[in-house]
Amino acid sequence: MNKVLDRIGREGPLMARDFENDRVKKSSGWWDWRPSKVALERLHLSGKLMTIRKSNFQKVYDLAENILPRDVDTTPPTAEEYARHVILRVLKAMGIAHAKVIFWSTRFVNVKATVKAELEKMVEDGEVSKVEVTGLKGAELYMLPEYKSRKITIANEAFILSPFDTLTVYRHRLRDFFDFDYQVECFVPAPNGSMDTFHYPS
Question: N vs C: which end of the chain shows fewer Cβ within 10 Å?
């Protein structure tokens, strides 16, 4: 990771393909990244690197200080602040969500206990509401209070969503809410089991 930061600092924005193939073992599949790619993604998740654009579906990485305006406050949030941010962001994006969906959004940092505690506090304070769906049993659902009185109009149109859209990536939501078992065919293993499979959160 230090080598990656040093090189980008000296040479400027780079893509994963700009780094030499530092793989020791043969790749076991699509998501078995080589060490330099793992370093780039971890630095990206930590905020030390940012992506400024995508070229041919490839991320271009640069140092955060080269992209962020100087007046942006980069003080790291407390665990509680981060947890509240994630909770609000997920509920704004998803409308209704299980706790496990919120937890999955923090899978790269060890804050699940904090997110759970903050979610309970926000429910007690009225910032988040629990939801019951008629005929649906299982884990509790949550939403923002302002959505309680929001009217929904069903459009008489068809929309095609990317399989990576947040509305389709959580397959259990589609199954629970719409009785639709969604699977992307290109990720289904071939009969001989030779094809890589991408595992969606379920």
Answer: C
